[in-house]
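subagent[fold] <- orchestrator: predict structure for attached chain, return tokens only, no commentary.
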Amino acid sequence: EVDAILDRTGTTISSDIYGHIDCCVKLSGMPDLLMTFINPQLMDDVALHACVRLRRWETERLLSFVPPDGSFRLMNYHIGNLAAVAIPLCVRHSLSFQNGEGKLDLTITAKQTMGRTLENVSLEIYCPLTVISCSLSTTQGRYTFDPVIHLLVWEVGKMDLGRSPNLRGSIILQAGTSYPEGSSSIRVHFTINQLAISGLKVSRL
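subagent[fold] -> orchestrator:
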């Protein structure tokens, strides 16, 4: 999971990565396993399963353990201070106000996915309190607007490489209100299977 803040130009301001290693063990006897990483120094905070020998992790940065049967989470980890992390998508937006309404134009483009497909893509925008409704059209997915919490959600879904889904249209304001000042933040959610953005790699098991 990548938690990152980007500015209007797409430059990463800060980023944190939260990950985990899940296991499903179906081995006979009591196997003694050893997992090593190419770059364990990337992890600055971990939570280990009780089967892991803590001292070997603290001194050698490797996972030595006798696993229990079945499915379990071997470890949770955090990687921080990655200012240069490559965010695999780009969001371009334009919002202007005139004659009692706003014009929104929002485009999302995949980049640096190493051939992987972006899935479960969605965007959330908390609109100003003076926004009462939206009249938008999208080239992919669907959108919803909650007038109670003023939340606009665009569910894009799966993004094929080379496509740039777009959402555009009008945002209706309450009559007699002034135009909103400042800009709204955009929260983006996505999933990429079998891609380690953090750069963390298992050497061997």
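orchestrator: received. Logging for downstream: Helices lie at 54-60. The longest strand covers residues 12-25.
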